Amino acid sequence: RHTRFKWDWSSDVCSSDLNMPAKPGMMGQMGGYGFDIDPQGNPWGTSFMSGEILGVDVAKNEALVYPVPGGVAAVPRRGRVDDKGRFWFSYYGKEALGMFDTKARTFKEWKVGPRFSTPYTASTPDAKERVYLPSNTCDCIFRVDTKSGQVVEIPMPSPFNSFDAKRVSWDPTSKVPSLIFANTRNAQVMRVEALD
Known about the structure:
By secondary structure, the chain is an all-beta fold. Helix content is 0%, strand content 44%. The protein is built from no helices and 16 strands. The strands form 4 sheets. It has a 6-stranded antiparallel β-sheet, with no helix packed on it. The model is unreliable at 11-27 (pLDDT under 50).
């Protein structure tokens, strides 16, 4: 079940079918984070405070809320929407890649790293359906083959504990598939080519 909200922007009134108590310990907190736009123009993002995927059906002026498997402890973080309408995101709290199909409204996930590897965001898939997630603590990027489940850990050429990428994008100027991102801990722009 998901919760629907409807806003009247002219009067700033929000109505909803929300009929449940506040989450224990969270006091009903929710905050949008890491949004991207699907092919229909609808934004999708996460609420790591409440453990949910948030979306807006722009045509209906409705907010959509979907609890992630694992709830608040899963800590869904930033993500990207691909051209098929799939929202790819990281599970910071359970070391996994998440995918929310915005059409079917279903979740799928892949385990990526050791405990406390804290993947922070996710790319969209490459031509071979592989998704890349930078770790916030391992000085690496995880490559997840979403067809086979294979995970490859790609070390980053950075001094110990100095790698931190908040957003991963495909380089539109490259002739070979290449990721481009900013390493925010030491002010570097980095590029990684997918070699196979």
